[in-house]
Amino acid sequence: MDLKRAIMELQCEMVAERNLVNPKNISWLQYDILSQVKKLEKVLPSDLSIILGITRTKLSKALKGLKSMGYIEQFPNKLDGRELYTSLSNEGSKLLEEISKKHNSIFEIASKSFTEEEQEIFIRLSNILSNELRKNRLEKDE
User: Fold this and answer.
1) Which sequence spans correspond to the domains of the chain?
2) Which residues form the HTH marR-type domain (predicted)?
3) Can you tell me the distance from the alpha carbon of 114 to that of 129, in angstroms, rounded to the nearest whole number?
4) How far apart are CA 54 and CA 115, in angstroms?
5) Tens digits of residue pLDDT in 75-113
6) What's the pTM value of the predicted model, to 2 decimals?
């Protein structure tokens, strides 16, 4: 199997797994937003759009939906009241915990499928590719 096909198949399997762990039927973009907000604790939409590689308009629409579902909270930036910081609400934290529990099944399968040495190799290679993808996306926005 060549590299291109292997990456495409892994991506398809990961998307299928995401479908199984989405209990509240939020979009993938909304899930990604919640994950980044959790990681960063509070974030400005301008920064979030760069991190996720999406337009401010698309982000704004997704944030509006998440806010109406009660998964995020927004509050003004004290330095510039026009910008709103975004953070997770208690409901958003609970949702991500639910999803995280279901992600454990993927971890368990990987743990059983790979030897310890293969796990270390997979981690290293996954991190290299993830970092390079992120770097290339961020450079396009500069």
Assistant:
1) 3-141
2) 1-131
3) 19
4) 37
5) 998 887 788 899 999 999 999 998 888 778 888 999 999
6) 0.67
- The candidate with the shortest Cα–Cα distance to 50, out of 66, 65, 33, is 33
Q: Within 10 A of 34 (CB to CB), how many other CB atoms are there?
A: 22
3-state secondary structure of 86: strand
Measured CA to CA, the distance from residue 5 to residue 10 in angstroms comes to: 9
pLDDT tens profile 17-41: 877 777 667 888 999 999 999 999 8
Q: How confident is the model at residue 16 (pLDDT cuts 50, 70, 90)?
A: confident
- Choose which CATH entry (2.40.30.110, 1.10.10.10, 3.30.70.60, 1.10.8.60) describes domain 3-141: 1.10.10.10
